[in-house]
Design a protein that fits this description.
- This protein is mainly beta and about 400 residues long.
- It folds into two domains: about 180 residues, Jelly Rolls (Sandwich); about 160 residues, Beta Barrel (Porin).
- It is about 10% helix and about 50% strand.
- It has three helices and 26 strands.
- The protein has a 16-stranded mixed beta sheet that branches. An eight-stranded antiparallel β-barrel has the order 19-20-21-22-23-24-25-26.
- The chain is globular, with a radius of gyration of 22 Å.
Amino acid sequence: MNSRVITRCILGVFCLAISCFTAVAQSPDAGKAIIARGDVIASQADASRELQRRDPVFLEDNVLTGVQSAAQLRMADGGLLSLQAETELAIANYEFDPDSLQGSVLMRLISGGLRTVTGKLQTGKDNYRLDTPLASIGVRGTHYEAELVEGDLYLAAWQGIIDVDVGASGVAPFSLGDGQAYRFAVVTKDYDVQFLLANPLAFSSGHSPLPGDELMTAFDTDYTLAYTIATGKAPESMVPALLVTGEAGIDTDRDATRYLEPDDRFAGRQGQAQFDAVENATVSSSLGSVENFAMSVTLDFDSARIPTGYLSFDDPGGEWFAAFNGVVKSNELDVTVNFASHNNELADGFIRALLIDSASAVAGNFELFEIRSPDIAAGGQFLLREQQ
């Protein structure tokens, strides 16, 4: 092959790559990825790209998470979408006018499951819709979940109301959530609707409830203990915050073993250790000065797990708090924030950390932000050692 032909081939490939990129880039932004763990792919037509943290998500994107993968998307109105493993979500439309707070949302859950906290968009069953193979869901609220399991559709309205139109003639529409008879339901593959008084098994490891709601079970005991230790007060003061520990996070009992190499002895360490002596911390907040920083990480070196952890501090807007767990791969702590709040507002964020100094210290950084007002944020760096 002569040099002229080679040049034409290279130019052809380059132009094709540019055209694919342009086809995706011309679509308006619907949001961005704030967490992309494992295999997270966005695609349109014949073009696809791997999503990483801070990457844009466009209208008409299909977002697909792989096995043992997860993603969280911050949408144009500040809403949060959390996609569990093996999920495919088509973003057909996500329009938002920040001046009028009006817009239109149409998404299609093709497989898997999602949890979402809606943003500033004034939601209603006519302007916000999630389609699934079994039903169409309209939203009049802030926090709901939908998951497809073996052909059945599991639904939960954690806050607000969802309106469900089942895709079969003769099946009456129904609503779940605040002020309704039920919060939970299952639409079977045969379009049979079953209402539930308790958290369905599909979500049982995924959520702990609002305290005081008789339709839900009690707070997760690990979280309650961690919060009480951190703050000196019971978690009832956190209403209306919700603890989320499941599909966006890690099943530490199941997944830890895949990170633990036979020859990795964490510098010969065994058993559990608690890192809660703050040797150094530099933390800032969008609202002003920060004080009373505290943090604790419990490591189980035998199972390569992080069974519990928390951090807390104060700024002029109130107390920030986060509870987390995870697994350890080599010297990296793979941490999932299970719950976060700022004063009485639900929050989210990330924590990155490493084992250093022959597994005698934990160093890292973090970022937290309010879900409804993501400009209210705090973050920084930390160095923790074991309490001697």
